[in-house]
């Protein structure tokens, strides 16, 4: 099998999504890149997870053209491709329609830092990119979703190596990381943080943001020098 390593890794990451309760039916996809070869392996479009195999993964280049595989790549392939092309340090991307994160995206709201669970992963609110205008939707919609994410990061001075997740307004979340496994982890964390924030604001709509000093403390414990993720 050609591109065996990325096919296996992308397959394993995709299979984790239903196991973690992050996708229903075929509502999502994961990909793993091989930077040296300039390609990534992604889930085929519309194929049920129980029917997935490493051989069914589709290998495409960073413009979204199929390089190896017989099935149609995910309809989100061009979004993945744009992110890989612009953000050279990422090796894996996940898109889900997980319930709580998607509800925040549909509400077009950032997720505020209300507790240390959030601060363990992010020093800022989980960002939410604005929905597209009609012209963007008429154009290359899936590529535009990628550009919309990149534009949001630039506009808000965010670093994709620090913040590995975003909500796309009216749509759903995208996460990324050094590989697909890390991107899956980030999707699960995002869903949990989204759920906790929603419940917190139901209990106390005036719940305050976490203090800056605690945000720093918690983030640095996980990401600073000598930490697991800081290595
Ligand atoms: O975003 C969406 C649908 O809104 C897609 O991610 C979802 O339907 C999965 O599509 P694919 O089966 O990957 O083509």
UniProtKB/TrEMBL annotation:
A GO term, aspect molecular function: L-ribulose-phosphate 4-epimerase activity
Domain called Class II aldolase/adducin N-terminal: residue spans: 8-198
Signal peptide: none
Any single GO CC term annotated in Swiss-Prot or TrEMBL for this entry: cytosol
Swiss-Prot/TrEMBL catalytic activity: L-ribulose 5-phosphate = D-xylulose 5-phosphate
Cofactor (UniProt): Zn(2+)
EC supergroup of this enzyme: isomerase
Entry EC number(s): 5.1.3.4
Family indicated by similarity: Belongs to the aldolase class II family. AraD/FucA subfamily.
Protein name listed in UniProt: L-ribulose-5-phosphate 4-epimerase
Gene name as annotated: araD
């Amino acid at each position: 099998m050609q591109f065996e390593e990325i096919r296996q890794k992308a397959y394993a990451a995709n299979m984790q999504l239903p196991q973690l309760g992050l996708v229903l039916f075929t509502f999502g996809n994961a990909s793993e890149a091989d930077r040296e070869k300039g390609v990534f392996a992604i889930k085929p479009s519309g194929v049920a997870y129980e029917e997935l195999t490493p051989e069914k993964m589709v290998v495409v280049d960073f413009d979204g053209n199929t390089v190896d595989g017989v099935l149609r790549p995910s309809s989100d392939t061009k979004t993945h491709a744009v992110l890989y092309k612009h953000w050279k340090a990422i090796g894996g991307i996940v898109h889900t329609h997980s319930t709580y994160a998607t509800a925040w995206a549909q509400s077009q709201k950032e997720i505020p830092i209300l507790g240390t669970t959030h601060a363990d992963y992010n020093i800022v609110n989980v960002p939410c990119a604005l929905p597209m205008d009609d012209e963007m939707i008429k154009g290359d919609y899936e590529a535009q979703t990628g550009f919309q994410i990149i534009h949001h990061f630039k506009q808000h001075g965010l670093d994709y190596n620090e913040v590995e997740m975003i909500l796309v307004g009216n749509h759903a979340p995208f996460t990324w990381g050094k590989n697909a496994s890390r991107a899956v982890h980030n999707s699960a964390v995002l869903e949990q943080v989204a759920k906790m924030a929603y419940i917190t604001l139901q209990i106390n709509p005036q719940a305050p943001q976490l203090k800056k000093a605690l945000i720093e403390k918690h983030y640095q414990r996980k990401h600073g020098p000598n930490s697991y993720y800081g290595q």
